[in-house]
Design goal:
By secondary structure, the chain is of the alpha+beta class. It is 26% helix and 26% strand. The protein contains 12 helices and 30 strands. The strands form 8 sheets. Strands 3-30-29-28 form a 4-stranded antiparallel sheet. Strands 4-5-6-7 form a 4-stranded antiparallel sheet, with no helix packed on it. Strands 8-9-10-11 form a 4-stranded antiparallel sheet, with no helix packed on it. A hairpin with a 4-residue loop joins β21 and β22. The chain is elongated and about 160 Å long.
Length: 670
Amino acid sequence: LPPISSQRDKGHISRVRLHQTANMSDFSEKDMADLLKKKKERIARLKARKAERKKRLEEAKAAAQLRTDLEGADKNDVGSLVPEKPADAPTPVAAPVEESKKVLDSVTVLIGNKTNKKAEVKLGFAKGAFHHNLQPAQRVIKYDKGIQIELETPLEKTLKGQVENLKTKIAQHSIGVGPDEAKMKQMKEVKSIEEERAEELALKAKMLTKGERDNIMASEKFLKFFKSSTKIIERALTQNDEYDITIDYSKKEGKGDEKEEEMLKPGPSFADTLKTNQRAITSIKWSPKHKDLFLVSYAEHQNIMTNDPDGLVLVWSTHTPSRPEYALTCQSAVLVAIFHPSKPNVVIGGTKSGQVIVWDLSVKTTPTNRTSLSTGHTHPVYAIDCVPAVNKAYSILSVSTDGHVCIWTDIDHLEEPGSEINLTFVKGRTENKDRDITTTSFGFVGRDWNSLVLGSDEGVLYKARLYDVPNSPAGIHQLIPAHVAPITNVNFRPPIKGLPSVMSELFLTSSFDWTTKLWSTKSRKPLLVFERCRDYVYDTQWSPVHPAVFITGDGNGNLDVWNLNTDAELPANSTQACEKERTISKLAFSSNGLQIAVGSSSGTVRVFNLHEKLGLPQEDDAKKFYESMQARLKSATERPHSDADRRQGRYHGFSNQSSSITSILNTSGR
């Protein structure tokens, strides 16, 4: 028989290969169904053609064999002849139809499982894809140590790969075929390869020009992002700064290796010379919520030629001593600043111009609200505090040097004060009628927000009430000549758990007369006088956790830690906290009582770590302190008043016309 291959068949084989290399995602559901239908028809024609060819081949072979046998055999043996398979006859070709049936069965199972019903799947092969006399690929037998392994033929691998590929594509695109294909949802169009490439190129990072990069880096949005990100990185890098990397855990310590534990250990310093420019520190306050955060306010510029604003408050974190977290500014020098008790993102300050300033850290570094120059204070505000109001709110109480008290109901409404009080002596005290009252500090008596004690530049303490109560009108009720020089601070003993509330009536005063004194609101005479300092005492603070511990800082830069349960004459520990020729201007205890922020006249803050043995109380410390103070209070009330109490510290040469605290502070810091 002549070969059935022709130019037309060869061309069709080319088209079949083209279809095989095409991506199935290029066909829609309808196209796939048409393709399967055509393949079905083609495989039916192929079956018929193969059967006809096989039949003709068998007939031709039988006729040829019969002729050969008749020519070389005896006529009598013709009836006994049985046709045999010629030796040189080609081995029958394994019909590709059997492999096609396997493909159809696999696809039928896959689609039947997906649609939960038996679906009819029909596939076919292109005409002329397989030649009738194609020789099968020879199987390769591999022997390895007696184990026979039969490998797959290339044809089997090809068909198996096509089946797996078809399964994957059908599962991905949910192609519906069979009689119910009209009821299935239309498959979404798949993007062409060119479109996908275009999208990939669009997603690739674009290389910016130098001008574009400079514009982005100079934008406010980028600078804000960069600043916040670098803060986070710096905090992460300084988390383990207190860990001793040289420690040897295997070393055995002998008696000679034992070191005396350091009760007061110096920590990091916080300074920004570009912003502070040798300004003296006017106040330090720790955040009530974030234990690592504290703020520092600074005095005005000494250089009158600078363009920087006079008012400056820096918010520092103990984790990042290299730079402040926030730099808050205003036009007037800030004399005092505090955190809002219930809003840790709000900072309140009192200024030299008499204004009360409010900053919101979440908004901007300039004031978000302020009081007017025409209402409220007209003199510098050295003292400010937040007092509880109704509905868990807080009012702001500010005191200026002219004895004027303003109560501001809310930080959002500072147009005018809710109430104003001029501290004057109550009726009946005519001897002090014309006395000028200059207040620089104050403190509330325990949790009585109506009673307060004020310190003045004259060294006098004023006991006053803010509101009228039965048998006690508002105003100054008592005057105590406490010091012979300006009083720098009045600090009441904060409430402590386990300590009787009567101990909250104790308070400390520091003065430029080189002394620190311990007082009780029930006595006109001091319970204790501490005269160890040999210079101005700029500040004193109680420990918030230990009932008997307090600290003082003087003009020589000495930081003294006192413990009244152990010694009332000498401090428990003392250290040089500032560099030479610098003074300690302000002190502040952290909420845990183990860190002390020390501010100097040079604008530097240094944090000292207090050892637990000295900073934390023992079980009987509260009881011991209470009994000791009760005995001293009894002795002070029984001892008659003498002029000697008034003259304490007078040898330092101060009079009632002493200059203000800020002027002396700035002069000593130069």
